[in-house]
Write a structure and sequence with these properties.
InterPro entries: HAD-like_sf (IPR036412), HAD-SF_hydro_IIB (IPR006379), HAD_sf (IPR023214), OTSB-like (IPR044651), Trehalose_PPase (IPR003337). By secondary structure, the chain is of the alpha/beta class. The chain has eight helices and twelve strands. Bound molecules: ligand L263DTV3. The site of the ligand O=P(O)(O)OC[C@H]1O[C@H](O[C@H]2O[C@H](CO)[C@@H](O)[C@H](O)[C@H]2O)[C@H](O)[C@@H](O)[C@@H]1O has 24 residues, from strand 8 and strand 10.
């Protein structure tokens, strides 16, 4: 519903932005909506958060999307509410809740790469591999010494595959290295969603904490919107959740009946 008078309040650390009207809100998950945890399966979602997001989405006529590196199955587990989602760093889109996800035609990482990464996990207890639809992540939060070794191994695998890494790139995440297919990113996800209702015609506001969010922020800015780094505009995830809670009364006032 472009043209609505509903406005998000200014972020606490960026008051100069003033109220943000006609927003389409794009939110990262890990490190942004929830605090970083020792392992991917250990994140704690505040009990009221899913419903809060659903209420804000309703106030924005559906123009709220989670844009995450996580697969949709994780997002559905942690946020079991009908809101738009983009998972796997933009490789999987579900713009309409309840509809089947959409995936561009992307390559799948060779099984041999995953096997080589598994040898690393044997050498460095505490490391773990997280499988994604197209690639995988080597996490080393619980074994920091493994970080440079994992990077060297994954760099080598991609280099052996040719100049464009066999269609893959190595993404630096928080205490993790992710083998991800080229051609999808949080930027492509935001661009795709901004071409569709109910996002089209609104002002994109992307909020994230990590280097993996920068492409999403850049596309939001290209569309005349805001790319907000959590640490700069809000501080910690808790401050973002407090801000989201403050969005709700206005959202419900302005939501269509
Ligand atoms: O795009 P995001 O929603 O921020 O997801 C990025 C990656 O987040 C997860 O890993 C990170 O969070 C874990 C839980 O706090 C933490 O243990 C790990 O060290 C972080 O790298 C997730 O596991 C990945 O799949 C996401 O791509």
């Amino acid at each position: 519903m472009a043209g609505t008078s509903f406005a998000l309040p200014p972020p606490p650390r960026s008051p100069d932005l003033g109220p943000i009207s006609d927003a389409a809100l794009f939110l990262d998950f890990d490190g942004t909506l929830v605090e970083i945890a020792p392992r991917p399966d250990a994140v704690q979602v505040q009990p009221g958060l899913p419903r809060l997001l659903q209420r804000i989405a309703a106030g924005l006529n559906g123009a709220l999307a989670i844009v995450s590196g996580r697969p949709l199955r994780d997002l559905d587990h942690f946020l079991p509410v009908p809101i738009a989602m983009a998972g796997d760093h933009g490789a999987t889109l579900r713009p309409v809740p309840g509809q089947p996800p959409e995936s561009p035609d992307l390559p799948h990482a060779p099984a041999a790469w995953r096997d080589r990464a598994a040898t690393l996990v044997e050498r460095f207890p505490g490391t773990l591999i997280e499988d994604k639809e197209h690639g995988f992540v080597v996490h080393y939060r619980l074994a920091p010494a493994a970080g440079p070794v994992a990077k060297a191994l994954l760099d080598e695998l991609l280099a052996e595959a040719g100049p464009n890494g066999g269609g893959f790139t190595l993404l630096e995440a928080r205490m993790a290295w992710e083998v991800r297919p080229r051609g999808a990113s949080k930027g492509t996800a935001v661009r795709d969603l901004m071409a569709r209702a109910p996002f089209a015609g609104r002002r994109p506001v992307f909020i994230g904490d990590d280097v993996t969010d920068e492409e999403g922020m850049a596309v939001a800015r290209e569309h005349g919107g805001l790319g907000l780094r959590l640490q700069d505009a809000f501080g910690e995830p808790e401050a973002l959740r407090e801000w989201l809670a403050r969005c709700v009364p206005a959202a419900e006032t302005e939501a269509p009946a």
